[in-house]
Amino acid sequence: MKRLKKLAGIFLIFSLIVGVSCTAAAAVKLDQKKITTGVGETERLWLNGASDNVKWSSSNPKVAKIVRPNGNTTEITAKKAGTAVIRARYNKKTYSCKIVCKKIALNASSVTLKKGKSKTLKLKYAKLTKSHMITWRTDNTSVLSITATSGNKVTVRARGAGKAKLTATYRGKKYKCVFTVPGSSGSGSSESGATSTSLLSVSSATVKLSVGSSKTVDIHYKALGDLSYRYPDASKLSASMGSWNQSKEAFPLTITGKSAGETTITIKESTKGESITLKVIIS
Fold first, then answer.
1. What CATH number is associated with residue 124?
2. What angle do CA 85, 87, 88 make, to 5 degrees?
3. What is the tens place of the pLDDT at every residue in 154-164?
4. What does pTM read for this prediction?
């Protein structure tokens, strides 16, 4: 009887050992079956339940390259847009993970936004870390202002008529979106091409000049406030505003061309916050 109990105990222990071994073998698997990432980003894969004797490979190293393999884990760098399969070979079995590499980009390259409205943009496939963050900038804050940022998203608000460029800088690369804010008589602002608001007016909203030459535009103003002006590209032009000309009832704005191209200059008044944008063509 005692012998039978002893045999039964041995059999039970053997069964538990075999069961644990089978369970451990069945638990071997990759921690991810599919990864979508941005070009230039680095991802990590683990073969859970495996020891250090794992061989890693990529079906397309030009798209996704194995870097720093270390036992049951490896890092993969996305080299260019495309698809690859990452394989882990362990105990004569192969475990696979599909990796899709996408170009990092803003989800819009141009946006038309009404004055007073807001818009949220996203830098797709950017993987933010403490050492790799996104810097957002707008080149014309009188037209477009940044109101909030969160992760790879930014929210902007249209402030006045004209054009503004939103730039996201990430890992040394720049991603841009051009915003157009139309003007209307009710909004107190004018878009490039319009010649007046309720308080501001010009004879022409397009100024043409050559490199090195200057042209003066009369800015007619029907209030007693102050005028300010700004332009997004100082490499294209310079500008200066003179004092009030009583006979013309206008402020003279002198624009000097510095390099060929097209740009804008926005004039804003302080009474109602109205603005008008001039298109400047330099040849």
1. 2.60.40.1080
2. 160
3. 999 998 888 89
4. 0.55
